[in-house]
UniProtKB/TrEMBL annotation:
Pfam families: TENA_THI-4
Gene3D superfamilies: Heme oxygenase-like (1.20.910.10)
Source organism superkingdom: Eukaryota
CDD domains in alphabetical order: TenA_E_At3g16990-like
Domain Thiaminase-2/PQQC: 16-222
InterPro entries: Haem_Oase-like_multi-hlx, Thiaminase-2/PQQC, Thiamine_Salvage_TenA
Organism: Solanum tuberosum (Potato)
Entry protein name: Thiaminase-2/PQQC domain-containing protein
C-alpha cells in the first residue's frame, strides 16, 4: 500500500505542479457558461459537431490501448476496464447522433477544425507500438478525467445548467463515469510506480500535452479556430 500511496502522490504531484493548466482544462469558460446558464447555444452546437469527429478518432486509440494492455499489462483486469470504456464509447457515438439530430447539427457536413485535426493526429501518434502502455494509459486517464471533472462541475451544487443540456453533463459527469476515471487513475499510478524515470517523464509530458489540447478543444466552441 505504501507504494500505492507514493504513486497516488505522483499524479497528484503533477496536478499540483501544473494546477493552472489543469484548472484551465476543467474550469474552461465554455463549460463554466453551461454551469451558469449563460451558454451560447451555437457554441454548444459547434462543440457537439467537433466532439463527434474527435470521438470517432478516440475509438481506434482505445483499441490500440487494449492491444498494449494485452501485450504489456501485469494485471488482467486492465483489459476489462478498457473494454468497458470502449463499450461506453459505442454508446457515446449513438448518443452524439441522437443529440446532433435534436439540435439540427449535420454531422456529415461538419468540417474538422485545425485544433481537432491536430488533437486527432496526436492521438494517432500515441497509437504507435513504440509508445509504452504506461504513457498511453496515463494519457487515456487524462482525456477522460478532463470531461468528467468539467461536466460534473456543471451538475454540482449551485449550478444553473439549462435543462436541455443536463443529459450532456450527465453523460460524463455521472458518478459511474467518475468511478471509472478513478479506476483509470489507479491503473496509471500502478504502472508509473513500476516505471523507469524516462517513461515517467514521457507520461508527464503527454498529460501536459493532453491538457493543452483539451483547453484548445474547448476554445473551438468560440468558433475562432
Ligand atoms: C475532446 C474530448 N476529450 C475527452 C472526451 C471524453 N471521452 C471527449 N469526448 N472529447
Amino acid at each position: 500500500m505504501e507504494g500505492c500511496n507514493k504513486e497516488m502522490l505522483m499524479i497528484q504531484k503533477w496536478l499540483n505542479q501544473h494546477n493552472e493548466l489543469y484548472t484551465s482544462a476543467t474550469r474552461h469558460p465554455f463549460t463554466l457558461s453551461i454551469r451558469d446558464g449563460s451558454v451560447d447555444l451555437s457554441a454548444f452546437k459547434r462543440w457537439l459537431g467537433q466532439d463527434y469527429i474527435f470521438v470517432r478518432a478516440f475509438v481506434p486509440f482505445v483499441a490500440s490501448l487494449l492491444l498494449k494492455a494485452w501485450k504489456e499489462s501485469d494485471d488482467d483486469s486492465d483489459i476489462e476496464v478498457i473494454l468497458g470504456g470502449m463499450a461506453a464509447l459505442n454508446d457515446e457515438v449513438s448518443w452524439f447522433k441522437r443529440e446532433a439530430s435534436k439540435w439540427s447539427v449535420s454531422l456529415s457536413s461538419t468540417v474538422p477544425q485545425k485544433t481537432n485535426l491536430e488533437y486527432c493526429r496526436f492521438l494517432e501518434s500515441l497509437m504507435s507500438p513504440e509508445v509504452d502502455y504506461t504513457v498511453a494509459v496515463t494519457a487515456f486517464w487524462a482525456i477522460e478525467a478532463v470531461y468528467q471533472e468539467s461536466y460534473a462541475h456543471c451538475l454540482s451544487d449551485g449550478s444553473k445548467t439549462p435543462e436541455e443540456l443536463k443529459e450532456t453533463c450527465q453523460r460524463w459527469g455521472n458518478d459511474g463515469f467518475g468511478q471509472y476515471c478513478h479506476t483509470l487513475q489507479n491503473i496509471a499510478n500502478r504502472r508509473l510506480e513500476k516505471s523507469p524515470e524516462d517513461i515517467i517523464s514521457k507520461a508527464e509530458a503527454t498529460v501536459m500535452r493532453v491538457l493543452e489540447y483539451e483547453v484548445e478543444f474547448w476554445n473551438m466552441s468560440r468558433g475562432e479556430t
